[in-house]
Amino acid sequence: MAREATIARTTNETSIQLSFSLDGEGKAELETGVPFLTHMLDLFAKHGQFDLRVDAKGDTHIDDHHTTEDIGICLGQAIKEALGDKKGIKRYGNAFVPMDDALAQVVIDLSNRPHFEFRGEFPAAKVGTFDVELVYEFLWKLALEARMNLHVIVHYGRNTHHMIEAVFKALGRALDEATMVDPRVKGVPSTKGML
After folding, report:
1. CA–CA separation, 191 and 189 (whole Å)
2. How confident is the model at residue 89 (pLDDT cuts 50, 70, 90)?
3. Of 11, 67, 92, 193, which is least surrounded by CB within 10 A?
4. How far apart are CA 141 and CA 150, in angstroms?
């Protein structure tokens, strides 16, 4: 069975169509209206070997907040749906990724208990026109809607772009690891018998 999902979300602020495949080739077709987010999602898909298509229209004439947040919501919902019953998955993923001066770590538990922790400080408030605080908003909504426990640690860095890039690459790699099917796992990887 294909591990993929398509999500549509329309509000007074945004209209989003998103398709996601866990077992992809790292291909991304992205029209987000938020150039820096487009760049980060492209990295996420490439390094996680996911196929991701996003067609988003939002009130970016105000700012990028609603569009960024709502794409995070849709991607989280797509991840949850694509995982199905989670039988046979590894469940946990951990990735360290360096990007020049920056080092980021992302740790994931696909536990069905949403939680988000972020440690790190970005030296700049903006990358181009993108408000850096939206990285937190995107990741928190992603974790909430995917019902994952997501820990993001930016260990160090000087360049904000590099630091965020390391986070999104690590996110892709950690999610890829957590969603891999392990033939040794019988049923769901939990002593509770469900996730």
Report:
1. 7
2. very high
3. 193
4. 11
